[in-house]
């Protein structure tokens, strides 16, 4: 219900309030972590992203306690995105990615969710440089692959690449990268614009 209110009707504050009631009703029950995931999707539209990292971590622990590896994988990835786009220190973001990669290797969970080595590369480039030269659109080397990425992966990579280019003030390159992908990005991330 909260997602319908937020996305379909643009009533995000009410959606967050409804989700808080759902969280209370779920308590420590078997689906509490899934209710928390829905709440995070609604809250990201109205709350600072960095503040969602800890709730994502708590929901991850609940998912693991229930043996729900798919939800746990999603929550690890979301926590990385909240941290990166929310302005958490880049070394902390890198540590989260490294922990996620170890977790994926340990549990064998495969997913197209963002939060892999590409994020570490972005953090290192933002921290240490070098500043991308003018006209360098693919600053992370992610966009020109022999085989096209699946739509979700390409959009995630494009947004990460645009973040890095934007931090360095390469706005023409950001628009060159994002403009042809706007429809796909909006389709995948409906309600976040």
Query: What is the end-to-end distance?
Result: 20 Å
What proportion of the residues is helical, as a percent range?
A: 55-70%
DSSP helical segment count: 10
Question: Mean of the pLDDT scores?
Answer: 85
List low-confidence stretches. Answer: none
Strand fraction:
under 5%
- Tell me the total number of β-strands: 0
Largest sheet: none
The gyration radius over C-alpha positions equals 17 Å
Question: What is the helix/strand order?
Answer: HHHHHHHHHH
Quick one: overall form?
A: globular
Structural class: mainly alpha
Write the layout of secondary structure elements.
Layout: H1 2-9, H2 12-26, H3 32-43, H4 53-66, H5 69-85, H6 90-107, H7 117-128, H8 151-167, H9 171-178, H10 182-188
Helix pairs in contact: 1-2, 2-3, 3-4, 4-5, 5-6, 6-7, 7-8, 8-9
